[in-house]
TrEMBL record:
This is Glycosyl transferase. GO terms for molecular function: glycosyltransferase activity. Residues 168-313 form the Glycosyl transferase family domain. InterPro entries: Glyco_trans_1. Pfam families: Glycos_transf_1 (PF00534). Keywords: Transferase. It comes from Algibacter mikhailovii.
């Protein structure tokens, strides 16, 4: 594709810790590195991951405090009106940008990049997506792109699959006995199912470190009660402040991913990139991409005894880094993204 003259802006509310936020950063950084005229618009604030945006990337900050304030709607219009493609991450941000587009009659191409992680359990169509049906839709999983065609009736030519990926970081490594216990990554809420991970760690008599912010007070209290019931306080460690997850993974023997539903998840790709063996529930695009070829990495149930047996089983180690390079590398993602823009601009 000839990218000369193409102007793309990525839009997200904030760069707090999360998969969609990391993809927004990767998207705008990779375009910048390719010398494509690109920018990033933050609707609310910067967030913990802001410093990962490359120096030199053009940044717009709306600093919105009132959702439907005309002042902010008009200011947002000024930010985006000169771009060819407005690449919006997550549904609620898309709703806001489409409102701006309609209100000010902007002749721009708005793309919804859908990161919704519960699509295998919740397939209803939000009312705003019926009103503002996307013309261009990017899904991070085949479940999402299928849903977009069947439930939103978006024509096939406007639907694109763009699986998550990461930029691999060079980090230190430990070997053998220096590694300590299990690691779980994901913000604390019921769908992430940290309760099962704690119960499994107890069954294995292993330390477990859980990285992620508390997003559900009631569920966090449930976790603490379970830890007390198991008398396992000294073995469960919470970390809600670390943003460089890849830089932490060398410390652990094994990663667990116990979420009940996912779109990616991005963290499995981080495990692959850092060659950390993991055991994950069979959900999301990573499972659909590599699960058949690498079945020992995935479980299809939540039975403690079966997970324990799988963890303890001696298996021939996979070259996880090679899996990352073949399926989830930054280079592949960037090229796929540019190809999508090419089709949108036809």
């Amino acid at each position: 594709m000839k990218t000369t003259g193409l102007k793309v802006i990525h839009v997200i509310d904030t760069l707090e810790i999360g998969g969609a936020e990391k993809m927004a950063i990767l998207g705008v950084n990779s375009l910048f590195d390719k010398n494509i005229n690109s920018a990033l618009l933050l609707l609310v604030d910067r967030g913990a991951l802001y410093n990962e945006v490359h120096k030199g990337v053009k940044l717009f900050e709306l600093k919105r405090t009132k959702l439907l304030s005309y002042q902010y709607l008009n200011k947002c219009c000024e930010f985006i009106k000169t771009f060819d493609i407005v690449h919006v991450h997550m549904r609620y941000n898309y709703k806001y940008i489409r409102l701006v587009q309609v209100l000010f009659n902007l002749k721009i191409k708005v793309v919804l990049h859908d990161h919704y992680g519960s699509i295998d359990k919740e397939v209803s169509v939000p009312m705003f997506l019926k009103i503002f049906k996307p013309r261009y839709y990017i899904g991070v999983s085949k479940s999402l792109t299928s849903w977009a065609g069947l439930s939103l009736n978006i024509p096939e030519k406007g639907i694109f699959l763009l699986p998550n990926c990461i930029s691999k970081k060079k980090v230190k490594h430990l070997v053998g006995k220096n590694k300590k216990g299990l690691v779980v990554v994901g913000n604390i809420k019921p769908i992430k199912n940290q309760l099962f991970a704690i119960q499994l760690a107890h069954a294995l008599n292993k330390h477990v470190t859980i990285y992620g912010k508390n997003q559900d007070d009631a569920y966090f209290e449930l976790l603490k009660k379970e830890i007390a019931l198991l008398n396992y306080k000294d073995y469960v460690h919470f970390n809600d402040h670390t943003t460089d997850i890849q830089g932490e993974l060398y410390k652990y023997e094994l990663a667990l991913h116990t979420a009940k539903s996912e779109s990616g998840p991005l963290v499995l790709i981080e495990y692959l990139a850092q060659n950390l063996r993991f055991l994950s529930y069979s959900t999301g695009e990573v499972f659909k991409t590599i699960g058949e070829e690498y079945p020992d990495l995935f479980m299809d149930n939540f039975a403690i005894t079966e997970w324990k047996r799988e963890v303890l089983k001696e298996i021939e180690p996979y070259d996880l880094n090679a899996i990352y390079k073949n399926h989830f590398s930054e280079t592949k993602y960037t090229q796929d993204c540019i190809n999508i823009y090419s089709k949108i601009m036809m």
